Amino acid sequence: MSNSCKKAYITTPIYYVNDIAHIGHAYTTIIADTIARYSRMSGLDTFFLTGTDEHGQKIEESAKIRGKSAQEYADEISATFKDLWDDFGISYDKFIRTTDAEHIIGVQKAFDVMYDNGDIYKDVYKGHYCISCETFFPVSQLVDDEFCPECGKSTTIVEEESYFFRLSAYEDKLLAWYNENPNCILPKNKRNEVIRFVEGGLEDLSITRTSFDWGVKLPENLGDPKHVMYVWLDALMNYVTALGYGTDEANMDFWPARVHLIGKDILRFHAIYWPAFLMSLDLPMPKHIAAHGWWTRDGEKMSKSKGNVVNPREVADAYGLDNFRYFMLREVPFGGDGDFSQKALIDRINSDLGNDLGNLLNRLIGMSGKYFEGKVDSSNAAKYYQAELDEVQASLDKLEPLLFDMQIHKYLEELWRPLTVANKAIDKYQPWTLMKEGKEEEAMALNGLIAAILAKVSVMLYPVMPEICTKISEALAFTIDNASWNSLIKEKKLLDTFTIEKIPPLFPRIEEPLLEQAEPEDTNLSTGSVKSDKDTKATVAEPAKSKEEGIALIGIDQFFQTSLKVGTVIKAEEVPKSKKLLLLQVDIGEAQPRQIVAGIKEWYSANEMLGTQVCVVANLKPAKLMGLTSEGMLLAAKDENGLCMIRPEKPKTAGTPIS
Ligand code: MSP
Question: Which of 11, 124, 135, 402 is most buried, by the most CB atoms less than 10 A from its CB?
């Protein structure tokens, strides 16, 4: 993908509102944010879209289970996505919801256009439908003639009147598009998969349903009010309705998208259905559809029941948002699957970030302070260190194409070469020796070289680590923007003379995991974390399940293995930098109070907790959270209205057992 057009429209998938955001969602969004930030910095007129996908049977059912209207439920979960992206500083230009009035009008308009040009007809659909995946499957694709090939859940046989989209008519046109645009689907091997699938033949697509209500109605002029649109037709259209398609058309000049960022599981919808819909609407094709791989946790598929879903907010709170962003983008080749482990994350922070980047800045601050009272002057850098500057520039020149080809891990790998050049230059030329030998000009030039390298690297790293790179640029007395990108990267200039600002180390060394204890989501009150302890799990026998609720049954002796005690909170304070955690000292009748780190700050202030009684799980293995040891867990109950502590009804002596 070349940076030659003036506009850049970048999208994420719109997220289903039947679940809260996890690392997979964060990954897609952070990649898109990185591309959007780079696009803006390099002077492209950029529009970055994200949002939520709110219609369909799955959402309708999830809402019903919780006793809510679908709209109420969608409002609630959509807000949690928006809040997370806002807290993460995601630089989106629009957050679309498929329940937005403009979106609904746009989808209906598109339906009309496709109907008028003969691509939609009415018939009867009989087939197997997976509610969980919101997809019809031919029997040939089912497992044991019944189960969904994607998620393994039982499918439902649906026989109903339906409108169909003539997908089969687009087979040749789609194949021509793939063939004429070798980079339309990234990574390239995914394009081959799609081609093989389309060559196998396409059936027409059922695009309306009559068995539920929660969806976009057909245009009124069709006079068929019992039909609602297929969620994927509704959802895919968001990419153009967000720009005003069918309403004010205000931003339609951003179309076609430069890149639709998606996960590999939704490639078929984006690489087959979406281009076919666009062809039918006579709209241009997106430039790229880029499909990333799947994240697992410590080698296992993440699932709520295993309690091993990685919560991005908690990882970012514990390890730093920029560090988390760097890790996800550096650790996994785009398109490949990735595994989240705290060890891998800590290694990246200590090694790449701490040793290579942070340490270089410290060395520069040290040298400038010791020899030149903080002054840095690059004017003689080229005179003494042209070879190093050439090597650095050769790496920088390779970067932009790597980013726009979605080879972000290689982009970061290449971006680290200048840091190696800089660190090696200090070791080789030894400023302390130069100063001893009276070669002050050379030593200052070396200082200037290092500062220039750090400045260039921080500009190009900014889209991945905006907060950290802003701090580096402030220390180096410049601002990261289109002007500095032009000057330092495109025009290959060095920094003007400046006085360096001493700043605290950017990447303090991390010695041990900061998120530890295993608790299934929603009961993780002592830790605020969501990981599972593999060792503990391995030793526990598979428990029996109660029929109605799928809850594991245990014997009374197993229950009594848990020591529960009444405790009195004798000290309560906030954990610095944490949005969730309070640090409590709880008297449970022992010689010393227990220190408990509790994820309850969203619902209780430190003051409200002070002096109150709580129920404590007293025999949990200690865990560390944000570097603080937690020696127990508090009992609480949480539902959609929030969380409340479980407390004794009347005051009880601290340490009283609960049984
Ligand atoms: N609503 C549809 C998308 C419609 S776009 C017009 C949808 N939503 S989703 O919430 O289920 O998934 C959104 C994105 O999250 C997808 O790109 C999916 O690949 C990604 N991920 C969900 N779980 C994931 C992992 N465990 N790992 C990586 N990404 C994963 O699909």
Answer: 11
pLDDT digits (tens, 9 = 90+) for 369-380: 999 999 999 999
Q: How many whole angstroms separate alpha carbon 650 and alpha carbon 613?
A: 9
Q: How far apart are CA 351 and CA 356, in angstroms?
A: 7
Q: Quick: pLDDT tens for 449-492.
A: 999 999 999 999 999 999 999 999 999 999 999 999 999 999 99
Element containing residue 396 per DSSP (H, E): helix 381-404
Q: C-alpha dihedral over 35, 39, 40, 41, to 10 degrees?
A: 100
Looking at ligand 1, which atom is closest to the CA of residue 25? 15
Cα 284 to Cα 303: distance, rounded to the nearest angstrom = 38
Residue whose entry in the numeric block shows the structure tokens 């309306």: 208
Residue 95 β-bridge partners: 50
Whole-structure pTM value: 0.78
**What gap in Å lies between CA 604 and CA 587, rounded to an integer?**
19
The whole-number mean pLDDT for each consecutive block of 10 residues of the chain, a chain of 659 residues, reads 72 93 95 98 98 94 91 96 98 98 98 98 89 82 85 85 97 98 95 96 94 94 95 97 97 98 96 98 98 89 77 96 98 94 96 97 96 97 97 98 96 98 97 96 98 98 98 98 97 96 95 68 32 26 32 57 89 87 91 89 92 91 78 89 90 88
Atom 17, ligand 1: residue with shortest CA distance? 263
Q: What separation in angstroms does the CA of 501 have from each of 210, 298, 375?
A: 66, 40, 10
The torsion angle over the Cα atoms of residues 409, 410, 414 and 419, rounded to 10 degrees, is 20
Q: How far is the CA of 24 from the centre of ligand 1 (A)?
A: 7
- Measured in Å, how far apart are the chain's first and last C-alpha atoms? 65
Ligand 1: distance of its center to the CA of 250 in Å?
Answer: 28
SS3 118: coil
Contact between 426 and 363 under an 8 Å Cβ cutoff? The reply is yes
Residue 174 forms beta bridges with which residues?
none
Neighbours of 195 (CB within 10 A): 16
